[in-house]
Amino acid sequence: MLDDFNFRVIMEYLPQFLIGLRSTFLISIVSIALALATGIIACACRISGIKIIKYPAIAYIEIIRSTPLLVQIYFLYFGLPTLGLRIPEIQTGIIALMLNSGAYIAEIIRAGINSVDEGQLEAGISSGLNYVQRMRFIILPQALGVTIPPLLGQNIVLVKDSALLSLISVMELTRCGQTMTSERFMPAEAFFTVAFFYMCIYFCLKAMADWSQRKLIFREAY
Amino acid sequence: MMAFYFSRLVEIYPFFLKGLLMTSKIAFISLISCTLIGFVLGIARSSNNLILKRVVGVYVAFVRGTPFVVQIFIIFFILPEWGLQLEAFPAALLAMAIMGSAFICEIVAGGINSIPKGQWEAATSSGLTLIQQLRLVIVPQAMKVILPPLVGQYVLLIKDTSVVSVIGVMELTRVGWVTVVRIPEGLMVFSLVGVLYFSISYPLILLSNYLERRMAVQ
After folding, report:
1. What percentage of chain A exceeds 90 in pLDDT?
2. B positions 188-207 inside 8 Å of A (CB)
3. Domains of chain B from N-terminus onward
4. Cβ contact, residue pair B198, A67, below 8 Å
């Protein structure tokens, strides 16, 4: 099956793959940072009692979670130019990833905050702490341990999702595989190499997520 | 111009419904096959047979470690090289089944592993065969843990069907992609596509939330 697997061509294309890998890396890191910021803001709006910011946040989260990322990417890719916004594909892609992951991250953070026992909140109120202090000293330190493992899981999802940017011709890892396929017609070599690189990223991130799962989950001492 | 494009869009609306039908067809077939394969694999993964466990583990790692687009490309472009010609539609179903079953396998294995050992021992000492143990004792209890994330996974799988548009299956996303070439109003066209996706996946999200609350109470 794989006896005519051509390693020479892979070596020839290796520099290109490494550029693609770097590009995937950069896109992921920038998107993760932006998504985290978006998620924190969206979650803060979502759990605040103020209706005028709460409902838009709910709408944002639910709309993003119930439509596919690819549709969101196309929506921005084909939609922004009609609004007169002409930005490079790579920025469109990063915005799409940011909005998509932001909604999931908002839900992860909200689950973390909800996981803190009601009694803790009441104890905080009766100690005379105000809202910010309760968040800062009681809720967030406990929520953080529950939040970090799924956040790292979301990073894995985001890195894999960034492969979809190849469809709007962002030059990243998957796109390199596509170029190699169209130039040399060697889909097996191209896509197995791409898969190999993604596996490497996956195992690094997975090891990190598993480690945090063991270390950080807040365990109550019963 | 807006109004003109809007009336064009209304004109070709049936085309979108056809796409929705195709999406539902792919989603329906692949959800069923994913669940069946996923359960079998999940039971194998939580078994005591080390070899079986490892083999399934490697399969799951490969599927979870690579993006779904790459998997589709591998199936669609590489299988013909090995002499297996597949049309776009069966290739899409195959890709969905492979991807979805790996995720469902992990959920099922997690659920089965959450059952205390004593239940297995009790079932064994009651003289039940392995199949009976699973069917009568273990799986019904594990279902409480499995069901909420399973429905959540269904939502993800339905959304992932959009990716099979890359190999030319005429489903909802592909319809939007084809339409936007003729009606250059990206916001309008893909809002419509988004609304149609929303109409199938949002009920499932609500169901998943409901199950999560209900199972947590018990």
Report:
1. 46
2. 189-191, 193-194, 197-198, 201-202, 205
3. 12-213 (1.10.3720.10)
4. yes
Using CA atoms, how far residue A144 sits from A220, B102, B213, in Å, is 14, 29, 22
The architecture CATH gives domain A30-170: Orthogonal Bundle (1.10)
Confidence of residue B181 (pLDDT cuts 50, 70, 90): confident
Longest Cα pair distance anywhere in chain A, in angstroms?
73
B79 to chain A: closest CA residue: A188
> Per-domain residue ranges for chain A?
30-170
Distance CA B88, CA B22 (A): 13
Q: How many helices (H) and strands (E) does chain A have?
A: 9, 0
Does residue B218 surpass a pLDDT of 60? no
The 8 Å CB, 24+ separation contacts for B16-20 are B16/B172, B16/B175, B16/B176, B16/B179, B16/B192, B16/B193, B16/B196, B18/B170, B18/B175, B19/B170, B19/B171, B19/B172, B19/B173, B19/B174, B19/B175, B19/B176, B19/B193, B19/B196, B20/B172, B20/B196, B20/B200
Q: Is the Cα torsion angle A206, A32, B206, B175 positive or negative in sign?
A: negative
Neighbours of A166 (CB within 10 A): 26
Burial of B48 (0-12, 13-18, 19+ CB in 10 A): exposed
pLDDT-derived band at B155 (thresholds 50, 70, 90) equals very high
H helices then E strands: how many in chain B? 10, 0
Query: Is there a contact between A115 and A51 (Cβ–Cβ < 8 Å)?
Result: no
Token pair of B25, please? 């067809």
Tokens of A208: 């990190």
- The half-sphere exposure of A152 on its side-chain side, counting CA atoms within 13 A, is 21
User: Which pair of structure tokens corresponds to residue B100?
Assistant: 């979805």
Side-chain half-sphere exposure of B101, counting CA atoms within 13 A: 24
Name which of B9, B64, B69, B165 to mutate to probe chain A: the one with the most chain A Cβ atoms within 10 A of its Cβ.
B69
Chain A residues close to B205, C-beta within 8 Å: 62, 65-66
- For residue B109, what pLDDT is reported? 92
